[in-house]
Structure formats: structure tokens, C-alpha cells
Design a protein that fits this description.
With 155 residues, the chain is of the alpha+beta class. It has one domain: Aminopeptidase (3-Layer(aba) Sandwich). It contains 4 helices and 7 strands, in the order E-H-H-E-E-E-H-E-H-E-E. It has a 7-stranded mixed β-sheet. Strand 3 and strand 4 form a beta hairpin. The longest helix is centred in the middle third of the chain and has 15 residues. The protein is globular. The chain starts with a strand and ends in a 5-residue tail after the last strand. The mean pLDDT is 94.
């Protein structure tokens, strides 16, 4: 399979690679920069910052940040981005699947759902999330459309 991917933790060996990834100019208003995300990550104790890697080339093609939100105790996907040169090849959909699998495998607190938010005009992200099983809920006070995926009990 030509577009197999894997997730790898962001650490001192690959953080510069992560901050060099960029979305297209038309998407910049929709997603925070990876520099901002990595700074924010330093203050989120139950979060993971992950590089999305092409298995074929072992090269970082995207970035994700997700974990247990300190405000509501649910899992949140704060960031999911694929580099502009790698978009349109199904990597966002595959990355979302890997993130959901990782959360399910590590959900030892039986948290009932994963929540994410996206800009209402970001139709590409909306399509990926809805095809991935997320259901739109309400508009957040900060202007994003929220969506939720129910996690089945593991026991």
C-alpha cells in the first residue's frame, strides 16, 4: 500500500521537522501553526504531540496533537494537519483512524467520547471527520463547529 502511515512522538530528534510542515495558504486561517501547537503542548499534561510519517519514505508528512482536555475531561483532537505537498492522498483520513485507535487503546479511564472542532468553512476537514464517524454537535463559543465520536466501552 503506497500511502501507509504511522504516528511517532515529537521529541528532540524531530521537532524541527514538525515546525517546517505547513498547510496551504488558503488553510492557514483554519489551523494553528505547529510552532504554536508545540508551545501549547508543553502545558498539557495528558496530551500527545505526534508526527505523521509516511512508512514508505519514513518522512514526516503531518502533525497531530490530542489528549484529555483539562477543562472537560474528554479526549480532544486539538490539531490534525497534513503538509500542503502531501494533501489529497488520503493521509488525513488515515491519520484520524490511527489517532482514534491510539485513544481507544489507551482509554483506561473509560472516557466516553472524542471531541474536535473545525472552522465551519473548512469543508475538507469536515468531510474527513464526518467520514471518520464524528457527528456534528454545537458551535463552540470560539466559532468552531464541534464534532463528537462516541467511544464504545472496552469491557
Amino acid at each position: 500500500m503506497g500511502n501507509a502511515i504511522k504516528l511517532r512522538k515529537i521529541d528532540e530528534s524531530n521537532w524541527k521537522e514538525a515546525i517546517n510542515l505547513k498547510v496551504g495558504a488558503e488553510q492557514e486561517e483554519y489551523v494553528a501553526s505547529n510552532v504554536y501547537s508545540l508551545a501549547q503542548y508543553q502545558f498539557l499534561k495528558d496530551f500527545k504531540a505526534m508526527g505523521i510519517y509516511s512508512e514508505e519514505e519514513d518522512r514526516m508528512i503531518g502533525f497531530a496533537m490530542y489528549g484529555i482536555d483539562p477543562d472537560d475531561g474528554n479526549y480532544w483532537i486539538y490539531r490534525l494537519m497534513v503538509d500542503k505537498g502531501e494533501q489529497g492522498r488520503g493521509f488525513g483520513k488515515l491519520a484520524l483512524q490511527l489517532i482514534v485507535e491510539d485513544i481507544k487503546a489507551n482509554n483506561d479511564k473509560d472516557i466516553p467520547c472524542i471531541i474536535l472542532g473545525f472552522h465551519p468553512e473548512n469543508h475538507i476537514a469536515k468531510g474527513i471527520y464526518l467520514k471518520g464517524g464524528f457527528v456534528e454537535t454545537e458551535m463552540a463559543p470560539w466559532g468552531e463547529q464541534l464534532a463528537r465520536l462516541e467511544l464504545k466501552k472496552m469491557r
